[in-house]
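User: Show me sequence and structure for the first protein, then do the same for the second.

Assistant: Starting with the first protein.
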Amino acid sequence: MQRIPLFLLSTALLLLGSASTAAAQDTEAERILPLGGSVTEIVYALGEGERVVGVDASSVYPEAATEKPDVGYYRQLSAEGVLSLNPALILALEGTGPPAVLDQLRSADVRVETIADEPTVEGAKQKIRRVAELLGRADAGDELIAEMERQLSEARTLREEADATPHVLFIYARGSGTMNVAGSGTSAEAMIELAGAENALTGIDGFKPLTAEAVVEAEPDVILMLTRGLDSVGGVEGVLEQPGIELTPAGENCRIVAMDDLLLLGFGPRLGTAVRALTEKLHPQLEAASASAE
């Protein structure tokens, strides 16, 4: 048998060790900067919160994320603020920018990976899968997806018990002076449909300014809002004071529903929880039955 010279064997082992170390650094030792609330949520759900060096302003869950340095809103970043955290890997939710800032970060040899943000169940799964793969946690990602599917299945079973399909109008508010309604192709509409309801606003794509005529014509049974949005207009009473609201079935019956911003529209690992919660809120008989069971 031909013997391998000792120095060659040592060199090979050294190179192999270096390659293994580099691979480990790629997936285990990087300083991560997640940008976008749902991306941050996924990173923490995968158990990788200790690697996070900062977050953006939309990353409000879990609570541990709020204790990290904040680089501002993910759509309005500054290269200086991001680079000050010395990240090795940026997980940027689709829409992160401005584009020029991302170019600056890449020019500074920072690895920037874009995470697609499609407001569908499959989109949420792909988002989890993508982040998990980038962090070397594919198995943990599969577990998150399996749990989400289980929760969604429970929500579907619950939805089948509903005796009506309410028409829901989603209003995005940041004070009475900034109120918009959600039409087709929005994450709000996607959530409404997942919860066994229908968007009361038809024939409109995206978000449009709220008008009394549009509200009355939509005839919503329920008005859905984000918690911060509801607070910004003075609560339920403030909503009822908006033009046209009191003339709708939702206004007459005071059916104003609010949910946490990231939970409702994030399409992250808590999607199943969000769908179930919204299903119960939009179908009062289901919410009452659930409360009785508890």
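Switching to the second protein now.
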Amino acid sequence: MTPAATALRREAAFLSEGVTCRAWVYEPAGDVARPAPCIVMAHGLGGTRDASLQPYAESLAAAGFYVLLFDYRYLGDSDGEPRQLISMQRQLEDWRAAITFARGMPGVDADRIGLWGCSLSGGHVLVAAARDAGIAAVSAQCPMLDGAASARMAVKQAGTAMAVRMAGAALLDVARACLGQRPHYVPLAAPPGELAAMATPDAYAGCMAIVPPTWRNEVAARLFLTLPLYRPIRHARDVKCPTLLIACAHDSVVSTKAAIKTAARMGSKARLITLPIGHFDIYLGEWLQRSSAEQIAFFQSVLQSARTVVKAR
């Protein structure tokens, strides 16, 4: 029987700073003792809950976990204006609200909360765990752990002229925001040579392969000013729980070296796996199966092998 056939899913909602975030709650399959551990999940840069994260959530539920998979404010099915706004601080607030909601869900063991992130949210989960000693486990795949390094990669690939265009678009968006006007949008993903948040050779095709037809390929351009300043790697030593990092050796979007450095800073708390693939390959086919199996085994070893003891929140 496939995970999709066994996972029970329901709609849920919670408030983050007074704005409604919408989520799916997956029930653990089989005869699982309650209270049971819960994995909180959200997507990466501009991603939504329906952008190829369902197989991960279904597999985790089939393995005996509750799963809370949510959309950030301003994106997907969640509320918030303006639409398509990506703010690091606000997304971290959404993570905090989602974790609080998960801890209060009936049947969930509040002391066995795991975090699952990918790409940008792979950095968010590290920061969230560093700030919350009650988090019991973290898994981050193709994680964006150093915005400065990612920005340098983008400039190296696109050139300084494109970097100037990106800065101009960001400043225009900020100016429009100050005037109370609609954001200045740019594509989230585009072919090389076009102005976009991701314009590496594999970005557009890779992104289109994992998103649903309703996905909006645009983002408020102020992102170009804030993303390079976001460096979750700085929080690595503050994470106290076991952490699984799955890096992609041929990642053109985020820095694989940053994942290696993060694992080194975390020492024995971190396990690093490097797969011989690009940034978007991990969501499909054999690499989806491989990464999902690694994450299930990791969460089972930390959250299910024995009742996890964590510090008081």
